[in-house]
Batch of 2 targets.
Target 1
Amino acid sequence: MIVTIDGVAASGKSSVSGGVARALGVPFISSGLLYRAATLLGLEARLDLHSAPALLAHLHTHPLRLEPLAQGNRVWQEGRELTDELHSSRVDRGVSVVAVLPEVRAWVDAQLRALPSPFVAEGRDMGTNVFPHAGAKFYLTASPHIRAQRRAHERPEDVPAIEAALIHRDELDRVQSAPAADAVVIDTGPLTLNGVIQTILAQLPERLRSGQVPSA
Ligand SMILES: Nc1ncnc2c1ncn2[C@@H]1O[C@H](COP(=O)(O)OP(=O)(O)OP(=O)(O)O)[C@@H](O)[C@H]1O
Ligand SMILES: Nc1ccn([C@H]2C[C@H](O)[C@@H](COP(=O)(O)O)O2)c(=O)n1
């Protein structure tokens, strides 16, 4: 069984997915990390981030591996762990350029679909494109100001700068970031992190909540 949690940038997708996955006793998958890792490698190799052939050639010679652990995801490039470098402001700025490339999206989707279920998958198009047959789908939103206030604890920039960057990224990500028709949309603005997790758990089918998570 697959549960998808999509949403706009900094809406709480990875924190919420981690909490839901822990409650269900399954791993969670943070799909954005693969886009971020592709961006980091492109920046380090000084590639044109608009060039899918250049990026994909580099990714094939320097393969990435997503490790979906229950306590958080890690990304490896051969023996090097990239995880701590994936949330820098320079990756934030470049990743939307990389994420619109259809060839890169197909590369990410193939990696995700190869992972063994059950799991919770978070991103932008988990419920619409990658796992359209998921057993339960959620989509998280919050105003740019609230998201910027939350993110300010994790970035060196001030709230107005973060808010402006989030609005810009929302615009760039809009094409691939829309709720599935059968997703439950949750405004996380008035909710605590645990409040969002409990809202989702309460809406899951009973067989999932009781820990009887089937593998397909
Ligand atoms: N409901 C909430 N109340 C308060 N803080 C929250 C809530 N949800 C998430 N946060 C905080 O907001 C920040 C962003 O959350 P998180 O990284 O999970 O979002 P995300 O959607 O995965 O981000 P990104 O799109 O950049 O991957 C974190 O500091 C997290 O602890
Ligand atoms: N399924 C996904 C996941 C992520 N992206 C894009 C959107 C963002 O620009 C970037 C990083 O994602 P985040 O870590 O902020 O969730 O990757 C996407 O297009 N599709």
Target 2
Amino acid sequence: MTTSINAKFDLDYGEFRLNVDLRLPGSGITVLFGPSGSGKTTLLRCVAGLQKASAGFLCINGDVWQDSEQGLFLPTHKRELGYVFQEANLFPHLTVAGNLRFGLKRMVKTAPQADLPHILALLGIEHLLDRMPAHLSGGERQRVAIARALALNPKILLMDEPLASLDFKRKQDILPFLSRLHGELQIPVLYVTHSRQEVAQLADHLVIMDEGKVLASGALSDTLSRLDVSMAQDREASTVWQVQVVEHEADYQLTRVACTGGELSLPRLAANPGTTLRLQVYARDVSITLQQPTATSILNVLPAVITGIADDDSGHCVVRLRLSGYAEAPSGLSSVDQVADSPLLAYITRKSKLLLDLRIGMPVYVQIKASSILN
Ligand SMILES: Nc1ncnc2c1ncn2[C@@H]1O[C@H](COP(=O)(O)OP(=O)(O)OP(=O)(O)O)[C@@H](O)[C@H]1O
């Protein structure tokens, strides 16, 4: 993966200080995750030039927008970026088409044009062009706001909790459109959220922040399975893998999928063999055995090696494992960096850990009781 964003900011508000030095991928979705007040929005505003860090350096795929040592600070209107906020902020007196055109009028004439039909199709809003914003659902308004930002053909898309003002149903409606941005957008996206669901569904790269600092930054599944960060330390912990559909077993209404480390049987999926999908496995749905179980109703039993163990203070512990079935990712998945190793977490009682005498480096079997496909 090429490191193409370098964002280094030191900004002191007195009560709060943002101090980050990040190297991020130049494409794909980077999610900034952290509790309220951890500095996610402040970081996004520094990237946009809406906030000026006293010491800062920002380079987006070769374009330097800030270099305080050289006295360089590009104002926001000169930064080629799209910004999507919690509220869509569409002009109420303009149709959807009018809202999209408004941004375009302000573009520099020589700037390359965005592929508008592609953007409209990507966000599924072709049929809404003549509508007024008041006649759109919350999810449709946000899709138009994202299209308006992309229509500017930005070099980076900044999204600050774009789903926060939507109810559960609307969030579910819009997430598939956001998932499409992975493969279809060439530019990097910085996406702020507190939602673990959005992290699992959207992130390629994950940055975990707290108190103005970066606690962890890395490929999604590596970061999700880091036992030193809080996301991996409770029963909501999960890992996300890319899997590939192998075949359907019509008689059993099952679909077999391949991951690095083996194959899994899932309830029948509406996807053709060869399709790549995201699979989320919660730590609480994974159990550990020392021998390969011979009589179990659980279909998904895979060999694994323990790579880490962290106790919590509620009588449980989280065990990090690496599947050890295959050395290589299935063909077709190898380009996805998070597939190189499919880490897995198991949330078990501390008593079970002691009874099985689990230790790092031990070969075991994992039983995966349930999992869910995210896209
Ligand atoms: N202009 C400002 N002056 C002083 N303090 C500020 C300013 N803007 C933000 N802060 C403080 O900086 C801290 C980080 O705020 P920020 O909005 O970046 O957090 P966040 O992680 O995005 O939070 P949330 O998830 O609630 O939106 C907060 O304590 C906030 O009160």
